[in-house]
Amino acid sequence: MEADVVETFRDSINQYFLHRSDYVSVHALLISWSENDISPEQEIRNLRRVLEADYQYQVTALSIPTNGQFDDPQLRLNVEISSFIECSSHRRDSLIIIYYAGHCSADKAGRAQWSAFEEGGPTVCWHVTQQLLFHAVGDVLLILDCCNAAMIAKGVKGSGRFEMIAASAKGFKTPVPGRSSFTKIMTRELGRHTESGISASSLCSLLLENERMTGHTNTSTETPIYDDLARTSRTSLILKRLEPPSDPRFKKKPASLLMIRISLSDDINAMEMADWFKTAPPRNVTAVEIEAVVTKAIRMQELSSKEIFSPRSLFSKLSAAAQDEIRRQFRGLDTTMANAKKEIDDPATAGDAWTVQDTFSRLDESVSGVCSAVQSSALLDLDRKYYEEAIDDLTLDVTDTSTALSLRNALVNTQVISEDQEIGRDRVRIVKTIQRLKIGKIDGHMVIIEAYRYWETVDKLAAAKQQVRRLSDILCRPKHVDFHILPGIGFFQDKAEKEFCLVFEPPVYFEEKDDVVSLSELYTREKLVALDHRIQLAYSLCRALDCLHKVAWVHKGLRPDNVVFVDKCHPPRLPEVSKEMSSRVRTLDSLPSVVDFTTPLLFGFEYARPGHDPTNLEEDYSLENNVYRHPNRWGRPTVRFEKSHDVYSLGVILLEIAFWKDVKSILDYKKTDRISATGVREKLMKRSRERLPHMVGKVFTDVILLCLSYDEHIIGKSEYEIQGVFQQRVLDRLKNKTVHI
């Protein structure tokens, strides 16, 4: 339960402080009639300019057709709004704005009916269409500049806010476009509050205070009305400029920490808690975190006290070494909890924020140690015949092992394919291609696509399609974020290009204007990268490989061009200039970009497979590919692919990260030099010993050397023991370096 609360809270609150806004996206739909008798077009253009240029919202205009012979207005309106909601309001932290300028009156049953002209002409039943808005996942703001604007039917909204600003009450008129019109005055007020933001209720209050709208001359006008149609929140939604996300690499060290203790009368509701913290936080609050680590630690202690190693328990079926490691981690957790209690009870340290933060850090490390010990044991030491029983084990659930065990079971069981994930090619629209990766859209949603070619022979094509179907099934299964693999959506076959394409859901912060960039490209583009960023990148890649290998998944293609980052592209805001000056402004050749080195994404799954599957012994004599391969895998491989070969490839990448240049530049071979597989490894290890201790320190150097000679350190060891070598001598040592950065 606490895991769901934490994830829901973090997903909502982190996006708020990243964008400093309630919303990750805001889309507006401005509706009018293609032919009308009030001419609102200029005011709509002005409103659109403010929303797009000042607020950075995505705006779409919709003209309801008046020639029903060719396009039914009711059908067109329903289809457009349904599509708009589906594409723009599929997240809780999104806002859609529906604006209408035109006529509105009551039909024979007294319900809202929009019309193109005051007398006669086409009409649409707004009371029917508006019910679609109650199905939006995110927040909804309805702005109606028409007579009888407040004539709206009630409904029930499952999630999010639904608020309305109506230009007039039922039975009253609103001014036509001009100096006193609702839209003109509202647009001006929005322009004044771009930086500070304004709530929907406050915006309506300002309109009420405007004498042009509420003056005595407007005797036929009922002043604007605000209404909360959902009543799901105590606060009104905020209209505010969408700022680019802050650069996560350069978070300032907090000047102080404030620990808040909250007493709850019932189970916590994560979204209510997140909405509470997002309500007008001070500008100097940069982050809010919810900690469930104490609850998790207490649950672990309760489980450990219930004889989890009793003769009939699942853990009694583990090896003695695995049981000893789990017991050791549980004892460490008990010690940490006891020390934490002493510090909390000690008046000298109980109120000190840094002491509390340090206590939480040590507690989190102890909880992680227990989770790691249980996961490694269950995944690598437990006999497969107990997997079905293990999936429902409470201890495995508390230690976040069940999901990984389910993934491993799918990988080792060649017959398990949950469902066919094939996507129709006609549903996919390619937006742009960046080397092997493509950015596209499926049903209006952004996706990242990895494509690789296939041979069009009947036997090979059938086998290749079965392989990609199985790979897609694995990629679509739930995985921990430490895998550094984007969630899979499915795959499609592009017969025209002779490609199979794996489809991934992009990160939540990914936008259409963003690009992706590989690690190999960054070596030349980013000339200087701080050592702490490089060590964190190295640790992230090691953590990802540890996750893969624990579930019996070998990558087989670890190279820097398969390590990818989102390249955030933020255009600079230029000051407004006159037409004469604008002709002198030089067009920028490139825009400033932001790459977060702590969040690499793994691709290159063309050859990825379960560790026990038959290996591919195809020949490849390309030096560009072979330098990343274990010496036994050069040219025509004579041995099956092992996990140690992945570790060797990782070692070469870590070596590149340490030098911050590609491996061919490090080797610096001349055309006349004789190159051999073992010679390359020896030269890489020699260069590491000679240069790296001074450049990156002894720990990072030792990790690289171990990876390059990994097969020598695991001879005669079991799968569980082999993974233990990697965790203790690679992962843990780099983790300690990142903690002290």
Describe this structure in words.
The protein has a six-stranded mixed sheet, with helices on both faces. Strands 12-13-14-16-15 form a five-stranded antiparallel sheet, with helices on one face. Strands 17, 19, 20 and 21 form a four-stranded antiparallel sheet that branches. The chain has 741 residues and is of the alpha+beta class. It starts with a helix and ends with a helix. Strand 1 (25-33), helix 2 and strand 2 form a beta-alpha-beta unit. Helix 5 packs across helix 6 (200-209), helix 17 (531-550) runs antiparallel to helix 20 and helix 20 packs across helix 22 (677-696). The chain folds into four domains: 21-239, Rossmann fold; 293-400, no CATH class; 416-512, Phosphorylase Kinase, domain 1; 516-570 and 592-741, Transferase(Phosphotransferase), domain 1, CATH 1.10.510.10.
